[in-house]
Every structure is written in structure tokens, then in C-alpha cells.
């Protein structure tokens, strides 16, 4: 049950795009499309922003998009806004009904 | 709207037990798998345990296996986490979370969390 690998930090200026990666293995992200991304502001509960690799829940801006290639999933935030500054976590389904999270990426809007 | 409200957190000594509850509302509780996820102070998210919609399937993280037990009462729309033999490293905010499916696969909604502090 090793955690998925995310960069600890990412940054971008308002209006720019930033991409956060999430690397897994053949036992999780590499074989399953149950890849999700969550946004968490300080002191708040996580919020789902991407599920099943590319899908956005109702109410999540189209600026947020997801993709996957091989063992790596990615979250792209386009047109960065100040309110996008938060921690972002990826997750994947793993064999035998378990869920694996990444270590989290702190996104800073410069 | 979906609401998940955790309760039962507090300050306890190492080696003792605690039971967390999660009251669900705003959706058909017995049609979704459920999860517990924790977050230690200033740390990332850690999946703790999952249970299928009917309780027939459950799994837990190696770090809590044999000490924590997830259960649910569909007649009361409530999820539980029985935590035994608590350790200092179990200190965290514990979130109750709903799955998108009948079986544990991926999480959509989260509660606000309840803080568990294990300290001597």
C-alpha cells in the first residue's frame, strides 16, 4: 500500500496553466481508471474536482482537467486564479477494495 | 444535499479505545460504499478503511489492520469506526467519506472531520 507519488509543490502566476503529476504502479493507477483529484483548502475537508481520470463533478470549473498516460495521471489547472491556491491530492483504486492517496501537492498562485 | 457528520473524537491515552460515528443524510445510504480517511496534523490524506453498501466487503490499511474495525448500520444511516489499541501515531482528523459506487472504488463527498488526539 505505497502512496502515489506527487511533487510536493507547484506554482504559477494568475492566468497561467499548471500541471500536477501523480505516479502509481501496475497495482493501482496503471491498471484502473478510478483516478480522482481533490482540492483541500486549509482547515477544510477535501473537495472532489476530477473523478474517473477526466470527469468533472457538477459545479467544478472547466479550468480543471485530468488525464492519464501509463502509470502517471495529471491534473491541469488552466487560467490560474487566486482561489486555486490549495493542496491537491490524487487517489486511485487499488486491488482488493482499497484506496491509495498521493502525498499531496501545495499549489501556490504567485 | 449530501451531508456527512462525524462525531466521537476526543483526547485519549495510548492503548485505549474510541468509537467514531458518521451520520449520513441527503442520499440513499444503503446504496453507496463508505470510507474512513484520516489526516495527521500538517500531513497528507491516508485511507483508513472501506465498506461496501451492504457490509459484505471491507478492507483496511495495514497501519490499522487488527486494531480498527469499520461497520455500518443501514437502518440508522450511520457509519462507524471502532478504534482499539490506539497509538500516538493515530492522532489525526478522521473524515467520513462516501463512495460513488456500491463497492469501494473512489470517494466523492467528505464530512468535515473529527479530531482524535492520542497522548499520554
- Please identify the structural class of chain B as seen in this structure: mainly beta
Low-confidence stretches of chain A: none
Backbone CA Rg of chain B: 13 Å
How much helicity do the residues of chain A have?
Answer: under 10%
Rg of chain A, Å, rounded: 13 Å
User: What is the structural class of chain A?
Assistant: mainly beta
pLDDT averaged over residues of chain A: 95
Overall shape of chain B: globular
Q: Quickly count the helices of chain A.
A: 0
Shape of chain A: globular
Which key features would you list for this structure?
heterodimer; A: 110 residues; mainly beta; six-stranded mixed β-sheet; 9 strands; B: 120 residues; seven-stranded mixed β-sheet; four-stranded antiparallel β-sheet; 0% helix
Overview of this structure, please?
The complex is a heterodimer of chains A (110) and B (120). Chain A is mostly beta strands and 110 residues long. Chain A has strands at residues 9-12, 18-23, 35-40, 47-50, 64-69, 72-77, 86-94, 98-101, 105-109. In chain A, the strands form two sheets. In chain A, strands 1, 3, 4, 7, 8 and 9 form a six-stranded mixed sheet that branches. A three-stranded antiparallel sheet of chain A has the order 2-6-5, with no helix packed on it. The termini of chain A are far apart. Chain B is mainly β. Chain B has no helices and eleven strands. In chain B, strands 2, 4, 5, 6, 9, 10 and 11 form a seven-stranded mixed sheet that branches. Chain B has a four-stranded antiparallel sheet with strand order 1-3-8-7, with no helix packed on it. In chain B, a hairpin with a 4-residue loop joins strand 7 (68-73) and strand 8 (78-83). The chains are: A mainly beta (110), B mainly beta (120). At the A-B interface, strand 3, strand 7 and strand 8 of A face strand 5 and strand 10 of B.
